[in-house]
Each structure stands twice: as C-alpha cells, then as structure tokens.
Write a structure and sequence with these properties.
heterodimer, A: 264 residues, alpha/beta, Rossmann fold, six-stranded mixed sheet, three-stranded antiparallel sheet, 10 helices, globular, B: 248 residues, mainly alpha
C-alpha cells in the first residue's frame, strides 16, 4: 500500500530524512517511531502530498504523491498532531463539510456519517458544538472524519498525545475495529511504546533521519535482547535527550498550551 | 465549486454563532462614534463643516470593515495550525478554491459587520442623504471588504508566528485607518499627509461610501470605484499566490 525507496529530504544543509526505505502492506497497522526531530513528521508530510521529496521514490497505492496529489489525497485520511476540527461547528457539520470537500455524494455522506458516529460513540452528541467535547471525543471525531471518504490509508500522527489511559485505550480499540472490519491500512506515530507494542503489527524506528530497525514488536525485542519494546527502542536510539530548536509551529503550540486553547 | 460554497457558508455560520464576539466588535466603532462624533462635533460645526457625526459615520463604517476583514485574514495563521484550515489543505480541492471560499466568507462577514455598525450610526442620529443611493453605498462597502479580505489573506498566509500580528496591527492596520480621511476632511491637508492619504486604499472606500451616504465626496465616485476594484484585483492575485505557498 505504501512503498518508499531511498527517500531523502534536506532543508538547507540539514538532512531531515536520509535515504530511507520501507514498505507497508495493505490492511497492516504500521507504527513509525522515533525521538523528536528524527524525521517522522517530515516523512508523513511527504507521504501525504504536503512536502516534495528531495530525492527517492514514494508510492501510495501505486501513485506518486508529488505528481498525482489529488488522486493520492482521495486515498488517505489523516489525523494531525494539532487539532483540525472547527470548534464552533457541531460534530455533524464537521463531518458533512469534510464529505463535501472530498466529493462524497450526499446520501453516502449521511449513511456513512451516521455509521461512523455510532461506531465512535459520538452519535448522541452529533449536534453539539465541538468546543464542548473532551480531548478524547475530539480525537475520535477526527478519526471518524478521516474515515468518512472511505480512504485506503489512515495516517495518525501522535493521536493519543495528552489523552488519559481510558481515552487512549478506547481510541485504539476503535482503530483496531475499523482496521479489522474495513481493512483500512493504518500508519501511526506515537511516543507511547506500550501502545505501539499492543496495536502495531510492524514497526519502523527512525533516528537522525535514518531507519535503524524494522520488524514486528517481537523481532525488535529479540534483536536487542530486551523484554519490552521501550527497552528495545532505547537500546536502538540511545537515552540522550534531543535538543530541538522549536520552529514556528512548535512555538505556537507552546503558546496554545499556555493560553489553554490547545487540544486538552 | 461546491467546496467554495461550503467554505463560504462556514465563515457565515461561525459569524452568526459568535454573538458575544459580534457585540464585542461593536464596542470600538460605537466608542469612536459617540466620543469623537459628539466630542468633536461642536468644533467641527464651529469651523463651518456641518455635523461631525454625519461626516464621520461613513468613516467608522469603513473602519469596521477594515478591522473585521484584516483580523480574520490574520486569524488564518492560527487556523492553519490549530484549526480547520489544515484539514482543507490536504483535501482533494484546489488551493485556489479554498482561498476563494474563505476570502469571500471573510469579505461577506466584514460587510455584514459594517452594515450592523451602519444601523448603530442611524440610531445615534446619522441620516443618509438619499435612500436611493444606499445600494450604491453597499456596493462600495462590498468593494472595500473584498480589498481588505484579500490583504488579510495575503498577510495571514505570509506570517510565520503570532509575533508578526502586533507589527501588522501597529504598522499597517492602524495607519490605514488614520490616514484614510475617515476622521477628517481631505481638503487643505499638509502635502506629506495628503500624499499618504492618496496611497491608502481605505481613503477611496471611505470617500465612495461618504459620497453615496452624505453626498459629500473628495474624489469622483468613478475614481473611488476604479481604484478599489484595481486594488482588489491585485490583492486577490497576491492573496491567492501567498496562500498557495502555505506549508503545513
């Protein structure tokens, strides 16, 4: 479903992504793990048509995101790291707007919208403004919205950041159910190793722009001789904390948290 | 096309639902109207210029349109990181359509806000010279709204973080307002100030509006309309170009 070969992206002298290759099979749940600044977001932006690669090849369902952007966009749903719902609109209006943007016919929009809201336990609250929703509900709504146009791939960029364990569990249960019933391929990133261990069938670990290991959670543990994925992850990426100069988006994120206007 | 419509509708829904914001945004125009309108009224009349309220009301209406349009343009910066805009930028919809839907919505909201302030002006004692020219006044209001919605989009797309916001406010929006002739007549100005007023697009919006509402204008209505339409076209292209360069 996703095929990446020798993918490279540089910003000036800095190699954010350095000649990485991996494949994600159809219907797979694939976790992309790595420390902050390792190149996860840059890779997702290239896979989702938002950034052109410097070199290398990407295939998303057989298409090239750089040249066939519109076709590729129809094929995936995405939940961004930062919230992207309209808080003033109701849950239903957010879904409906998404359906119109993706050219989903009205009838399908209504039927699938209802089915998804039911599946994500949001149907009763469909007419309430999103600003009255909890963090977990908003995340669920974003995932439901991402699935409305029946995408083949769902990208989840740190979807559980800041959620309590109950909401996290519930969210992954929903994602696993949708993966099983609809066969949607899931490409996720997270900093919670227990989640990746539990949810993902295969994992790639990226550090300093290069992929340092790929395999099932079990294989990664065996490879490093650790009994937890967290242990394996730390063995592969080291324990040093990454110093990152915040970019404009990160600065805004900090301001948002300070003013209490963030997701939580 | 459906995308443009639904994004336009979204801006309208957001506006009509934010009652508190609507009331709050009336505060500044009302203050100008009452404090300056009545405060400077006697001096203005004594100098033989007639009613100051009558003179400044079109200026305050135009100011409302300027602030409303520029603010929502700048809010684009926030919206693309913590809002719905990001969702529209990965949708299979041409960027130009997203920009058009949003900018038209912004312009419509700015116009509605201006009309609301016009009603407040009438309550305060403002009287249009001729009801027949009110539609023409609305046309000037619409042109002004499009000019600054385009400017707001261009600026909002170019800003990198919220610090730029204060700069735009102090070095662009406020000068646009104070140099526009919204608060004083354009006759007998010092040469430097006169030159500045002539390069300020809002001058032509205020003048056109004032001409239609009070019959007192500095430039010919055709000149006002032509300048506004020209600037609107340039800013729309600039806005579309800047918007197409947004990275998320």
């Amino acid at each position: 479903m996703i095929k990446v070969e020798q993918l490279t992206r540089t910003f000036g002298d800095f190699k954010a992504v350095d000649s990485i290759s991996f494949e994600v099979g159809a219907g797979e749940i694939f976790a992309f793990l790595g420390p902050n600044g390792a190149g996860k977001s840059t890779t997702i932006r290239m896979l989702t048509t938002l950034l052109a690669p410097t070199a290398g090849r990407i295939e998303v369902d057989g298409l090239d995101p750089a040249r066939q952007a519109h076709e590729v966009r129809r094929r995936f749903g995405i939940v961004f790291q930062d919230p992207s719902l309209d808080q003033e609109l109701s849950a239903w209006e957010n879904l409906d707007l998404h359906g119109v943007l993706y050219g989903v016919p009205r009838r399908t929009r209504h039927e699938r919208g209802e089915a998804l809201l039911q599946a994500f336990d949001l149907w009763e609250r469909r007419n309430d403004a999103v600003k009255t929703f909890s963090g977990g509900m908003r995340r669920r709504l974003e995932i439901a919205r991402g699935l409305l146009h029946t995408p083949k791939i769902l990208f989840l960029d740190e979807p559980t950041l800041g959620l309590d364990p109950q909401s996290r569990n519930q969210l992954w249960a929903h994602v696993q159910k949708l993966n099983a019933t609809e066969g949607v391929t899931v490409f996720l990133t997270t900093h919670y190793m227990d989640e990746a261990d539990r949810v993902a069938r295969r994992i790639a670990i990226i550090d300093h722009g290069r992929i340092v290991a790929t395999g099932t959670p079990q294989q990664l543990k065996e490879q490093t001789g650790k009994d937890s994925l967290e242990g394996a992850y730390l063995a592969l990426t080291g324990t040093a904390i990454r110093e990152e100069t915040p970019d404009a988006a990160a600065r805004m994120r900090m301001a948002a948290q300070m003013w209490g206007r963030g997701r939580r | 096309m459906q995308a443009i419509y639904i994004l336009w509708l979204r801006e309208l829904k957001r506006y009509t639902r934010s009652r508190v914001q609507i009331i709050a945004s009336l505060g500044q125009p009302v203050l100008y109207l009452l404090a300056l309108g009545f405060g400077l009224g006697p001096v203005f009349r004594a100098s033989g210029n007639g009613s100051y309220l009558q003179f400044m009301a079109p200026g305050v209406i135009a100011m409302t349109v300027l602030f409303s349009a520029m603010f929502s343009g700048i809010a684009l910066l926030w919206d693309r990181q913590f809002g719905f805009l990001k969702e529209t930028l990965v949708a299979p919809v041409p960027r130009l359509h997203v920009m058009l839907g949003r900018t038209c919505g912004t312009a419509t909201v700015a116009m509605l806000q201006g009309m609301l302030v016009a009603v407040v002006c009438v309550v305060a004692g403002f009287r249009p010279a001729s009801l027949a020219l009110v539609p023409a006044a609305l046309a000037f209001l619409a042109l002004t709204a499009v000019v600054f919605a385009g400017a707001g989009t261009a600026i909002g797309s170019s800003l990198k973080d919220m610090q730029g916001f204060q700069m735009v406010m102090n070095f662009l929006v406020l000068p646009l307002f104070f140099l526009s002739g919204a608060l004083y007549p354009l006759d007998h100005l010092p040469a430097a100030l006169a030159a500045f007023t002539r390069i300020d697009p809002l001058t032509y919006g205020v003048d056109g509006l004032r001409g239609m509402l009070t019959g007192r204008a500095h430039f010919a209505a055709v000149v006002d309309a032509a300048v506004l339409a020209g600037v609107a076209a340039v800013l729309a292209v600039l806005g579309a170009w800047r918007f197409s360069k947004i990275e998320v």
